[in-house]
Amino acid sequence: MGWKIFVHSVRMVLDNLGAALRVSLLLYLVQVVNQVIVYASPQIGAASGEPMQSPAASFELLIMMILALIASLWIAVGWHRFVLTGEQPRGVLPHWHGTAIMSYLGRSIMIGLLLGLGIAVVAGLALGLATAVPGLVGVVVFGLVGLASYLFFRIGLILPAAALGERLTLRESWQASGQDDKAILVLALIVMGARLLIELPAMIDGSTGTVVSLIYGIVVNWFVTMIGISVLTTLYGHFVEGRSID
Q1: Bridge partner residues of 90 (DSSP)
Q2: Handedness of CA 52, 56, 60, 63 (dihedral sign)
Q3: Do 222 and 28 form a contact (C-beta atoms < 8 A)?
Q4: Which of 94, 181, 194, 238 is most deeply packed, by most CB within 10 A?
Q5: Which are the contacts of 109, defined by CB distance < 8 A and separation ≥ 6?
């Protein structure tokens, strides 16, 4: 079932590619600009200790980061609503749902804090034990990432609910996704594996900080973004709304 959920999410994007581009392309360009600015920003000198950039440049970077965040939330809400309600984007932009976007942001922060706190506690214990056994650190890190992904998918159904203006608690999300928790575990492992395979080609020129890697990341991250949103959409549609994924 986990594999079915993943394949269904990928097909959701590929089968609706035109709509996916209308929902996301213009907004994604904001994120692209932000990535390029970050890439082009001067790095701090190890010996000189000079500031990374001027106050004005730092302020501009902060504004771009905020705009990129808003754009990512707008894309997520727009795609959730397109898939779950059939709401079509207006030209090259999805409809603006300010309340839903702010709710999505608030719930994202809540999930981030909960997962960060929980994983930090587990990581402290696990890494403390792993350091005593050479070679186990990598395994522990992989396991922690997998645990974080699993927990995110279990409680992350509150995000599509926010996009729809629906009220769904963390407990309700956990209970709904618990209908097939093994599928969620398999899905988390598949997503981790897919992400690893996607990131490997970025090292083709021997570094992740080159123009080639930047361009590759810009192109690939669009698919990663849309498929990631689609996974949550599929989980919500299947476990909360009872939709079939066959």
Answers
A1: 93
A2: positive
A3: yes
A4: 94
A5: none
SS3 93: strand
Q: Please, what is the Cα angle at 148 between 145 and 150, to 5 degrees?
A: 110
CA distances in angstroms from 11 to 15, 43, 231, 241, listed in the order given:
6, 40, 11, 19
Angle between helix 211-235 and 17-40 (nearest 10)? 140
Closest CA to 76 of 58, 50, 97: 97
- How far apart CA 91 and CA 78 sit, in angstroms, is 13
136-155 vs 211-235: helix axis angle to the nearest 10? Answer: 50
Tokens of 244: 């079939």
Closest CA to 203 of 213, 195, 194, 193: 213
23: amino acid identity, one letter: V
> Rounded to whole angstroms, how far apart are CA atoms 107 and 157?
10
Global pTM value: 0.86
Cβ of 117: how many Cβ atoms within 10 Å?
10
Mean pLDDT by 10 residues, the chain (246 residues): 93 94 93 82 50 67 89 96 93 92 96 93 78 72 88 96 95 94 93 83 60 82 94 96 87
Which token pair is 209?
């900080």
Decide if 233 contacts 84 (C-beta within 8 A). yes
